[in-house]
Amino acid sequence: MREAQFLGEQIERRVALKCLHPEYATNEDASQRFFNEARAANRIGHPSIVQISDYGIASEGRAYIVMELLQGEALSKRIHRNAPLPVGEVIDLTIQIAAALAAAHERGIIHRDLKPDNIMVVPDRQMPTGERTKVLDF
Predict the structure, then answer these.
(1) More confident site: 72 or 31
(2) What pLDDT digit, counting tens, does each position of 77-113 carry?
(3) How far apart are CA 88 and CA 94, in angstroms?
(4) Which residue of the set 29, 54, 92, 113 is catalytic?
(5) Beta-bridge mates of residue 119
(6) CB atoms within 10 A of CB 74
(7) For the whole model, what pTM was predicted?
(8) Exposed/middle/buried for 76, CB within 10 Å: 0-12, 13-18, 19+?
(9) Is 137 a catalytic residue?
(10) 8 A C-beta contact, residue 25 and residue 32
(11) pLDDT (tens digit per residue) in 60-72
(12) Environment class of 86 (CB within 10 Å of its CB; exposed 0-12, middle 13-18, buried 19+)
């Protein structure tokens, strides 16, 4: 994923731009699944689910999703760097992830690729621990 500047300059907000691999650009099913990911994330509407602001097809034919730019680290990197994680931290992260998945399941949405690479841990002063999980890639 790369950071998108085309929107950030106009609305003074940095965003992330996720593009469908060029190999799948002409595959209508792949594009539809890609856009379903964006719609699913927004239907859930939970603070621990990445926020999507737009999606579409770029002029060269590649599908894209515009989402919040997350400043943090993938849970997989944290695990690799700090393994084993302290039990209290694991419990807190697990509760947050479970709450996000419960919100998804309440709306009939199932995450089919849940793994540490698809979970970001980001700073959040509103959380008691100062961190929030963000589930990606629905």
Answers:
(1) 72
(2) 999 999 999 999 999 999 999 999 999 999 999 999 9
(3) 10
(4) 113
(5) 135
(6) 17
(7) 0.84
(8) middle
(9) no
(10) no
(11) 888 999 999 999 9
(12) exposed
